[in-house]
């Protein structure tokens, strides 16, 4: 951190007015980016100023009537140990000054004051304050990163289920909490798309931030394991299994809290009891299925999915074509409308072939419709119909062919409209712009979420277009960019390897070395010493 980035506040304390005046005039406070926010003639007045202005540095006489300098320092540092004290001491008070250093003073200066010496002392104090600020920033960044990593781990496990083999090494982080039993709540703002259309982007972020704060505070008070956003307008809360019988009450209380503070309606779906981190994806799906019941009601509510519920509905419901659903989701992600039409016809054949009763078939298609519609929302693809309107139309359809034709028309038109709205040249410009953004931000903690937001695309859609346009996944491209910059620095400077790592976006030098060797076949040091690198 550069010293000029933070303007530190200073309080001067001395019972001699002439010394206060000389300190103000003789020290180049502005040049050192310091601001005198108060002057005091005694310890009691200084204590009041400290509490009023929260200074970073106090320059004080050590001997004063009433509350002396050391007593002042003890009171101040008991409230905030990071404040720095520089004491001015008479020669006869040398032992007193040594005591001040033992109690935590930054330094002391003997009278008469040598202003050059004091300036040098203040500059050292500024360096220490800069270091404290830097450490605070790093600590905050580490805490935020830890939360984001934890939330991302949950999100990826939910999306990938047991297939997320690359995350297996992370499971120990949370498996202890989840092994004893838990359940999932999916909290969703009602009519979110309509609200999002009404809100400008900055206002939407403020609303989502406010709701997340409400959820964080409420979840903490209720003993939840964690809470995090999963999609826009949707949050996930994990509760310990011991609260299972309280789901209805928990849901009603949370709906009331969100309505009280934001006036916004929301609904909540709860999963049955699950155990172990590998069941997290299934528990999320069950909570989501419970939430589907919202579309049969006129107002927000709490919906609970019980074990065996699908079997209780009818024997046919157990035959839900999950394999077809997954293929259709992939068609939406890849904008393959022709394949989607074929899969819808396969779904029709599946229902007819299993002689599924009308009521069960309709329920099955409602579930499929909601899942596909949510994928369109998640990818920000255009659809003319609201979900409520589409479901009403589906219920009004008399025959299975009518329903399949309706879904084919609505979802097919959505994909076609998306293709038309993204000419190849426009996509090329968008990805090029994103590549420029990566080139300017590779040294930061750049995430795929940030890049997708910059491009104005959903993460799934961004990944698809970026890979089509560049031939790389986002992470592969970012890594290539970072290692390329590292190679240039290694060949054109004497910067130490451990110092290069943070310059190219790696906070852990050991991890940087591992990635570098994987990409080049050499360690950074070996690459620097090699006669010619593939620069």
TrEMBL record:
InterPro entries for this protein: CdaR_GGDEF (IPR041522), HTH_AraC (IPR018060), Sig_transdc_resp-reg_receiver (IPR001789)
4-aspartylphosphate PTM positions: 61
Pfam family, one: Response_reg
CDD domains per record: REC_YesN-like (cd17536)
Transmembrane segments: none
Domain Response regulatory: 9-126
Annotated protein name in UniProt: Response regulator
Lineage: Bacteria, Bacillati, Bacillota, Bacilli, Bacillales
